[in-house]
């Protein structure tokens, strides 16, 4: 899916995408009330939040183009630091 | 790596900072194993305790025990002028009287605490935490004591081992006073799992809309209200420094990996940091000295330089006849730090204003402007005080792409890390997440390419902070926990003033960020500041007791919703 197209999709299209992804992961939102502002969470609010997230975060991140040769896609911190020190000392 | 015992410079300038970059630049499988859930026992190696200059006993004896700092209590307990049993009784009495309003605690295991205090009363003095009751955030595993993280997921969970950080505090002589309320799963201010507010700000106990700060809300309220001498918290996005700031405490978020996360309910593997919320810099140092060090059960803690003498670093030093800085230090001032910002939509935090009249809106904006003005006035005075202590304050330039790399979208890269270990619970029943569900769902929607690109951004951001910001200074003022939480650098919050707002006197805080392993310098700076100011000694009045039979009047709860939770610290 093109990142820009996420912003162009309708609410219904995005909801279908979100619910399909959740279903593939085994997560079921149908246990939530459909629309209940007094509930701790409802489907309407969760889906609205997810749509905002999808329309903003992935496109913003993918629009940034780093130097992939120089910058490691690292988790942090590295547990290999002791080995690194050993390599330096050795 | 430099000699960590060299007394000439603090650790932050003796270590090749490239080592820190290289730590971040390596991807490991071990980092993704989620060992925090592994049910193994802790074999904690105790850090070497730093020396402690104890305060004058005659002065300390004139103070109520519950009013004393850790250092003051240590002086009395060591001299056997105060028994751990007596001290525990003082705190339990205050909890009984005031926690009905403050709601700082989830669990107070009084009988177990009394047994531990009696045991320690007869034992040889082992250090400044000997016999001191502490408040522990309810996401730290405590063997045999309920650990809930204020979540349905952990309701009734009783761990069979202690979190390493808590095990170390116990080994240093601390007593478990209680488990503190928190935002569910360490998001937002403290609420029930379904979003009803619990803990209130100790400075405004009658007004639940005054934010106590989250997610370590109960830890902050307990210490601010003198229901405990010190407490522990965790920080992923401001959860130690924000509540400390809002309640007049000194909160220290250490360098990533300084304190083990083993046995702490995780939120975000690469960003969770345990640390202390304390009365002042010395107490924060005493706490961190005990908590910090390598732990074979947490690979994030391995390979760091040894923990330096933090307690001595937090002792003020005299230059001639005046207090001065322990080490020459330049303080970086961000652009705009001393400017009054524009209108603040967030108001005082904690609640959105769903429906408000034009008059209410104007009143809220006016209050926000007054608060911003008070903050800027306090910041100016704080920097002036540091200059009088010998520090140099310099305006710094922000690195390239600062707003982008520290902004909300790149900050969201953390979300899959919270979703992944909790996936079994999401699959079981999403209602287990109560009011906190939304970010866990969003974390499932971020793709691999976005996640990996976000990791590259973190590395670049760290490089630019180390080479750009810290090329100009030794500590830098901050207004928010980002980006230091993102890149694992230390932060310290400390009180620098008071402001009058909505009928309450509320603390105003300063926030400094430091280099990797820069806790020494941060503590030394704040200790010098606190030696010549008294903001850290102020405390809120006790809550009014109106419930009869010695119980304080209960404050009616409010409810947060998904938007409030998304906007809050973690």
Structure description:
Chain A is an all-alpha fold. Chain A has one domain. Chain A is built from 4 helices and no strands. Chain A has helices at residues 3-8, 11-25, 43-63, 81-89. The radius of gyration of chain A is 20 Å and the shape is elongated. Chain B is built from 19 helices and 13 strands. An 8-stranded mixed sheet of chain B has the order 4-6-5-12-13-11-9-10, with helices on both faces. A 3-stranded mixed sheet of chain B has the order 1-3-2, sandwiched between helices. In chain B, α4 (84-102) runs antiparallel to α5 and α14 (415-428) crosses α15 (437-443). At the A-B interface, α2, α3 and α4 of A face α1, α13, α14, α15 and α16 of B.
> How many strand elements of chain A?
0
Please report the distance between the alpha carbons of the first and last residues of chain B: 33 Å
- Largest sheet descriptor of chain A: none
What's the oligomerization state?
heterodimer
Count of helix runs of chain A: 4
Stretches with pLDDT under 50, minimum 5 residues of chain B = 1-5, 27-50, 344-353
**Based on CA inertia axes, which overall geometry of chain B fits?**
globular
What is the residue-mean pLDDT of chain A, rounded to a whole number? Answer: 84
Supply Rg of chain B.
22 Å
Question: So what's the overall shape of chain A?
Answer: elongated
Secondary structural class of chain B: alpha+beta
Total of domains of chain A: 1
Largest interface: A-B, 42 and 65 residues
Mean pLDDT of chain B, rounded to whole units? 88
- Give the helix level of chain B as a range of percent: 25-40%
């Amino acid at each position: 899916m093109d990142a820009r197209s996420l912003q162009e999709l309708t609410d219904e299209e995005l909801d279908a995408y979100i619910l399909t992804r959740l279903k593939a992961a085994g997560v079921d939102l149908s246990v939530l009330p459909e629309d209940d502002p007094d509930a701790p969470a409802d489907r309407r609010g969760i889906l609205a939040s997810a749509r905002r997230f999808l329309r903003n975060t992935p496109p913003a991140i993918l629009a940034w183009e780093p130097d992939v040769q120089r910058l490691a896609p690292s988790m942090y911190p590295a547990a290999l630091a002791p080995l690194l020190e050993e390599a330096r000392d050795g | 790596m430099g000699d960590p015992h060299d007394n000439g410079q603090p650790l932050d300038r003796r270590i090749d900072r490239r080592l820190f970059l290289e730590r971040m630049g390596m991807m490991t499988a071990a980092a993704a194993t989620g060992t925090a859930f592994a049910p193994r026992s802790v074999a904690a190696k105790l850090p070497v305790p730093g020396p402690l200059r104890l305060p004058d006993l005659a002065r300390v004896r004139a103070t109520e025990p519950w009013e004393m700092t850790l250092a003051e209590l240590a002086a009395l307990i060591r001299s056997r002028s105060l028994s751990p049993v007596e001290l525990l009784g003082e705190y339990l009495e205050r909890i009984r009287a005031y926690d009905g309003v403050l709601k700082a605690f989830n669990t107070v295991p009084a009988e177990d605490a009394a047994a531990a205090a009696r045991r320690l009363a007869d034992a040889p003095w082992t250090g400044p935490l000997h016999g001191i009751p502490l408040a522990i955030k309810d996401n730290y595993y405590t063997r045999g004591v309920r650990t809930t993280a204020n979540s349905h997921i952990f309701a009734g969970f009783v761990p069979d081992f202690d979190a390493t950080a808590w095990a170390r505090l116990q080994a240093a002589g601390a007593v478990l006073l209680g488990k503190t309320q928190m935002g569910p799963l360490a998001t937002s201010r403290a609420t029930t799992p379904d979003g009803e507010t619990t803990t209130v700000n100790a400075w405004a106990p009658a007004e639940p809309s005054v934010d106590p700060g989250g997610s370590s809300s109960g830890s902050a309220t307990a210490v601010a209200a003198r229901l405990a001498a010190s407490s522990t918290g965790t920080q992923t996005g401001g959860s130690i420094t924000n509540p400390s700031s809002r309640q007049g405490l000194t909160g220290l978020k250490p360098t990533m990996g300084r304190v083990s996360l083993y046995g702490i309910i995780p939120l975000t593997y690469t960003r969770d940091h345990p640390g202390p919320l304390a009365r002042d810099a010395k107490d924060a140092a005493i706490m961190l000295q005990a908590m910090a060090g390598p732990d074979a059960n947490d690979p994030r803690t391995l390979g760091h330089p040894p923990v330096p003498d933090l307690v001595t670093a937090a002792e003020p030093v005299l230059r001639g006849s005046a207090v001065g800085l322990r080490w020459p230090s330049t303080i970086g001032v961000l652009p705009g730090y001393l400017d009054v910002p524009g209108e603040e939509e967030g108001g005082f935090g904690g609640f959105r204003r769903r429906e408000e009249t034009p008059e209410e809106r104007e009143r809220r904006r006016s209050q926000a402007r007054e608060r911003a003005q008070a903050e800027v006035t306090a910041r100016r005075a704080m920097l002036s005080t540091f200059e009088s202590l010998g520090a140099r304050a310099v305006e710094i330039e922000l690195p390239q792409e600062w707003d982008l790399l520290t902004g909300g979208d790149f900050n969201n890269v953390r979300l899959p890390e919270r979703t992944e270990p909790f996936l079994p619970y999401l699959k079981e029943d999403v209602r287990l997440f109560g009011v906190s569900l939304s970010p866990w769902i969003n974390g499932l929607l971020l793709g691999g390419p976005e996640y990996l690109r976000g990791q590259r951004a973190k590395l670049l951001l760290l490089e630019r902070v180390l080479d750009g910001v810290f090329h100009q200074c030794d500590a830098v003022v901050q207004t928010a926990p980002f980006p230091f939480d993102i890149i694992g650098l230390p932060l310290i919050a400390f009180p620098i003033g008071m402001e009058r707002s909505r009928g309450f006197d509320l603390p105003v805080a300063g926030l400094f960020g430091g280099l990797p392993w820069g806790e020494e310098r941060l503590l030394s700076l704040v200790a010098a500041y606190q030696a010549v100011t008294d903001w850290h000694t102020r405390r809120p009045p006790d809550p009014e007791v109106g419930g009869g039979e010695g119980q304080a009047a209960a404050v009616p709860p409010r409810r947060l919703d998904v938007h409030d939770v998304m906007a809050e610290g973690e």
